[in-house]
């Protein structure tokens, strides 16, 4: 199984768009990306740090994206 690495906000958004998500859109405290009726919250980009692997895994779980699919796209 491929190993996930920390990812920047911009790369996260770009990759989620490859999976058909639109956005990011303003959702109050957090931004979100939307695909059909599914909403996936994503962190605000105001911090200059990369997103941790744990947070990335949580986003992928909520988006219904398998790790292997994420790594192969």
Can you lay out the helices and strands and say which pair or pack?
Blueprint: H1 9-18, E1 22-26, E2 31-35, E3 38-42, H2 53-63, H3 67-72
Antiparallel strand pairs: 1-2, 2-3
Short description:
The protein has 73 residues and is of the alpha+beta class. It has helices at residues 9-18, 53-63, 67-72; strands at 22-26, 31-35, 38-42.
Structure in words:
- Helix content is 37%, strand content 21%.
- The chain is built from 3 helices and 3 strands; from the N terminus they run αβββαα.
- Strands 1-2-3 form a 3-stranded antiparallel β-sheet.
- A hairpin with a 2-residue loop joins strand 2 and strand 3.
Are there runs of 5+ residues with pLDDT below 50, and where?
none
Derived structural class: alpha+beta
What is the C-level CATH assignment? Alpha Beta
Largest sheet: 3 strands, antiparallel
N-end to C-end Cα span = 15 Å
- List the quaternary state of the chains: single chain
Sketch the topology as an H/E string, one letter per element.
Answer: HEEEHH
Shape: globular
Q: Which percent band covers the strand fraction? A: 15-25%
Number of strands: 3
> In the CATH scheme, what's the topology name?
Metal Transport, Frataxin, Chain A
Strand order of the biggest β-sheet: 1-2-3
Helical percentage:
25-40%
Structural domain count: 1
Q: Give the radius of gyration.
A: 12 Å
Question: Could you report the average pLDDT, rounded to the nearest whole number?
Answer: 90
């Amino acid at each position: 199984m491929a190993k996930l690495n920390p990812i920047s906000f911009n790369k996260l958004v770009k990759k989620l768009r490859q999976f058909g998500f639109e956005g990011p859109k303003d959702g109050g405290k957090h931004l979100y990306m939307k695909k059909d009726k599914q909403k996936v919250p994503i962190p605000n980009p105001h911090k200059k740090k990369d997103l941790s692997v744990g947070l990335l895994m949580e986003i992928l779980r909520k988006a219904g994206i398998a790790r292997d699919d994420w790594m192969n796209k």
